[in-house]
Amino acid sequence: MYQQMIFVNLPVEDLAAAKGFFTELGYAIDARFGDESTAAVVVSDTIVVMLLTRSRYADFTGKRIADATSTSEVLIALSAESRSHVDALVERAVAAGGTASEKVQDLGFMYGRSFDDLDGHTWEIMWMDPAALDR
Questions:
Q1: Residues near 57 by Cβ (< 8 Å), separated by ≥ 6?
Q2: What is the SS3 string spanning the chain?
Q3: How far apart are the C-alpha atoms of 116 and 90, rounded to whole Å?
Q4: What is the pLDDT of residues 43-72, one digit of tens each?
Q5: CA distance 97 to 119
Q6: Residue 99 contacts by C-beta under 8 Å, 6 or more apart in sequence?
Q7: Whole-angstrom Cα distance, residue 13 to residue 119?
Q8: Per-residue pLDDT averaged across 75-93, rounded?
Q9: Distance of CA 107 to the CA centre of its chain
Q10: Torsions phi, psi of 57, nearest 5?
Q11: How far is 14 from 53, CA to CA, in rounded Å?
């Protein structure tokens, strides 16, 4: 059966630093889909984050490229398998040079935290109790 994939394309200032950041988070870089201006970060079988230098990113749009350190262009939300996995991923992101948001969302059945990567893109990491889905 066909599984639809999502490719999130993000502009980055320093491709090597961005690749290192996501590698520190535990994600693999798929060298088959990269070159000196792009890198493919494999998040899961169906989610790939394409890191593109700002000049390469500009090849795909006629719009001004947002500076994610001062504006918000997208919030990227990823699920985690547990509350402890949420915390662990955010802590790894901070250790790799990212910035954690002070805001923690704890609704009991749902728990989330967020961080900004090296280029200011916001990543929301969340866990939801599977039992809450059955209500």
A1: 9, 10, 11, 65
A2: CCCCCEEEEEEECCHHHHHHHHHHCCCEECHHHCCCCEEEEEEECCEEEEEEEHHHHHCCCCCCCCCCCCCCCCEEEEECCCHHHHHHHHHHHHHCCCEECCCCEECCCEEEEEEECCCCCEEEEEEECHHHHCC
A3: 9
A4: 999 999 999 999 999 999 999 999 999 999
A5: 10
A6: 115, 116
A7: 7
A8: 96
A9: 23
A10: -60, -40
A11: 7
Q: Please, are residues 54 and 11 in contact by the beta-carbon 8 Å criterion?
A: yes
Do you know the residue count of the chain?
A: 135
**Amino acid (one-letter) located at 33:** F
| Amino acid at position 40, single letter | A
Place of tokens 């969340």: 126
Q: For the whole model, what pTM was predicted? A: 0.89
